[in-house]
Design a protein that fits this description.
With 473 residues, this protein is α/β, with parallel strands linked by helices. It folds into two domains: 373 residues, 3-Layer(aba) Sandwich (Alkaline Phosphatase, subunit A); 76 residues, Arylsulfatase, C-terminal domain (2-Layer Sandwich), CATH 3.30.1120. The protein contains twelve helices and 15 strands. The strands form three sheets. Strands 1, 2, 4, 5, 6, 7, 8, 9 and 10 form a nine-stranded mixed beta sheet that branches. Helix 2 crosses helix 8 and helix 6 packs parallel to helix 8.
Length: 473
């Protein structure tokens, strides 16, 4: 089978004959040198965990330099306050509510809570077209290196268009950050080897092996998720600085961030070394807000597992040499659902016209040629975590949160109240009702699954949980 025939066959199963042909035609028509894509995804990193976003505790010189060479979004969001749904939204350009993949896999169990959570999908369905699959007709080779957390063996990256999977399976956190990691898909480690370094080693090997062809590297770190484990020298560095950090493990967490930052620097250095930096787009973000028991997201409120800004507002950086003006910032709200259409447009491709996408290409923002024609961003989290099930909408500077147990509404003006301290719902009931209707209309439009009254509800045991699963969020 020749190369073109192989590429066509690779995407037929996902898009169908007509859809794959249209994608391939769009890619061929674009012509020219196609950019490489490096997507660096960090787990549980809060927006304020980077010095370029205001941290005075953590030092992130390499990520800061990345931001200085591209655009830093101040209002970049994850599509969910926990990991698996956001990851699915990145890869498909769809809201988690539309995918019915709305919690970390496998989620918390609250059998006696007031509401019963819906029977949600605990894997990324194979019929969904990922970025890796969509790019195949244009000759891209793709690698997923690191955390996957979107289903068991039958749903691993290799089934979703990736040519290489290193270290990605069903789990959401590593048993250990030091070798042996006890992850079957990571072999041949050495004593003292650190997970973040090893994933970076594999990423650099992939880049070097594919420097002469267009590639999509999805480098998705397990860090800075618990367990809190870091290299001794970096931990001692932060202990010696004596800076205030949250909790007894603050220096360890700072050292984990430093290792991620080292990874960013190594990737950037490799692109420079190979002479391909000018044709490689680099994305950097986190899958949800920082864990509030580990780090501070201030001035953002709360953290992971909540729909407050600390749970969903992320570091969001794009470097695109020759296109994005270095050192710029953008305050237009963007979401993880926007990466899919953006990457396809960068590659000179178009989604199949039958394909449903919730995201928008942010090309006008990157080129500073316009803004986005989008009325609102939405969230739907019908699960129990640090808060009760609920949803949220951001429309302009106003953000509404609705809680499903009792219908309580909270309304905030993010422009004047970034920390969400002043609830305006009682003072602006008409606006709150208007946004609630928009949120409800959106839920119906995407087929969002709603929790239902729980026949086993027991007020005395509603916070009781079964023994935790081996894979924590």
């Amino acid at each position: 089978m020749n190369r073109r025939g192989f590429l066509r066959r690779a995407v037929f199963g996902s898009l169908g004959l007509a859809g794959a042909s249209r994608l391939l035609h769009a890619a061929e028509a674009a012509g020219g040198t196609k950019p490489n894509f490096v997507f660096i995804l960090v787990d549980d990193m809060g927006q304020r965990d980077l010095s370029c976003y205001g941290s005075t505790i953590y030092e992130t010189p390499n990520t800061d330099r990345l931001a200085s060479q591209g655009v830093r979004f101040t209002d970049g969001y994850a599509a969910c306050p926990v990991c698996s749904p956001t990851r699915a939204s990145i890869l498909t350009g769809k809201y988690p509510a539309r995918l019915h993949l709305t919690d970390w896999i496998a989620g918390h169990k609250r059998p006696f809570a007031k509401l019963a959570v819906p029977d949600w999908t605990q894997y990324l369905p194979l019929e969904e077209v990922t970025i890796a699959e969509a790019l195949k007709p244009a000759g891209y080779v793709s690698a997923s290196i690191g955390k996957w957390h979107l289903g068991g063996p039958q749903y691993r990256p290799g089934t979703q268009g990736f040519d290489l999977n290193f270290g990605g399976d069903h789990r959401g956190q590593p048993p250990s950050y030091f070798w042996p990691y006890n992850i079957p898909l990571i072999k041949d480690g050495r004593p003292g080897e650190y997970m973040t370094d090893r994933l970076t080693d594999e990423a650099l090997r992939f880049i070097e092996s594919n420097k002469d062809k267009p590639f999509f590297l999805y480098l998705t770190h397990y860090a800075v998720h618990t367990p809190l484990q870091a290299k001794k020298d970096l931990t001692e560095k932060y202990l010696a600085k004596g800076r205030p950090a949250k909790g007894p493990n603050g220096a360890t967490y700072a050292a984990m961030i430093a290792s991620v930052d080292e990874s960013v620097g190594r990737v950037m250095a490799k692109l420079d070394e190979l002479g391909i930096a000018d044709r490689t787009v680099v994305f950097f973000m986190s899958d949800n807000g920082g864990l509030a028991s580990v780090t501070s997201n201030a001035p953002l409120r709360a953290g992971k597992g909540t729909m407050y800004e600390g749970g969903i507002r992320e570091p969001w950086i794009v470097r695109w040499p020759g296109v994005v003006k270095p050192g710029t910032t953008c305050s237009v709200p963007v979401s993880s659902i926007d990466f899919y259409p953006t990457i396809l447009e960068m590659a000179g491709m178009r989604p199949d016209r039958k394909q449903v996408l919730d995201g928008l290409s942010i090309m006008p923002l990157l080129k500073q040629s316009g803004t986005l024609e989008r009325e609102a961003l939405y969230w739907h989290y019908p699960h129990y975590h640090l808060t009760t099930p609920g949803g949220a909408i951001r429309c302009g500077d106003l953000k509404l949160i609705e809680y499903y147990e009792d219908g309580k509404l909270e309304l905030y003006d993010l422009k004047n109240d970034l920390s969400e301290k002043t609830d305006l719902a009682a003072k602006m009931p008409d606006k709150a009702a208007e946004l609630r209707k928009k949120l409800d209309d959106w839920r119906k439009a995407v087929g969002a699954q709603m929790p239902t009254p729980n026949p086993s509800y027991d007020p005395k045991r509603e916070k009781a949980t079964p023994p935790p699963a081996k894979n924590k969020p």
